[in-house]
Amino acid sequence: MNLVISPARICAFTAAMSLLHVNAAWAAEAALSGDLGIGASWSQSQIRGERERTSAMPYLDLEYGPAFARVDTFGVKVLPVAYGHIEVVGQYRHDGYKAANLGKRQDSLPFGMGTLQITPIGAFDVRVYHDFGKSAGTLWQARYLAELSLGRVTLYPEIGAEYQSRRYTRYYYGTTEADAATLARNYQPGSAVNVFAGLLIDTRITQHWYTHLYVRRTVVGDSVADSPLVRGKGRNTALLAAGYRF
Predict the structure, then answer these.
(1) Residues with Cβ < 8 Å from 206, sequence gap 6 or more?
(2) What is the pTM of this model?
(3) Could you tell me if 117 and 86 are in contact, meaning their C-beta atoms sit under 8 angstroms apart?
(4) Is the Cβ–Cβ distance between 162 and 194 less than 8 Å?
């Protein structure tokens, strides 16, 4: 008999087991901390025929007991480990698109596990997701953040990488039959590793009010960049927000 354990089953099992720990942790740690505000995001599109995206968004960098929100990542801390916790996490990516003359792709629904380790030499963030959306692919993410305080301004430079499985890249960057007919080219990419560097600038305005400016440059892997759906290897994103710090 063959026993196959899929990433989806692992995520579901981990989420169920985490419920055994959450109630006690909530009672012991229930206190709101972090930043709550509003902002605007801007991003270049990698997809040919799609415009740049600019949108208003809530700015959430909060913790309440074991629950947390970190801008685009939401989850629950499950088990203390070293300088952080094992976490059950979900992510909002807004990676779907509807470009001219191309088939529509739906947003992914990533859910998985991770850990944020805040050490004396910086923060290490590692996550693995299964996409419960259309691609059914897998994402691995790793990044490092440093901290530099300059009076009222604090800088957080980051570097990182994301692995995208073949299922994920084929859904978002591979051609459908209709795409291939339009572009006169069929393309089915393999897995990809994208690297990025970013900078978060936090500025204290008053005792509780802060502004947040975040910029990131991403360079995609060759299997993504070679897709006829994609224009160029580089992609820039930015976020500007103001928030109240609890």
Answers:
(1) none
(2) 0.87
(3) no
(4) yes
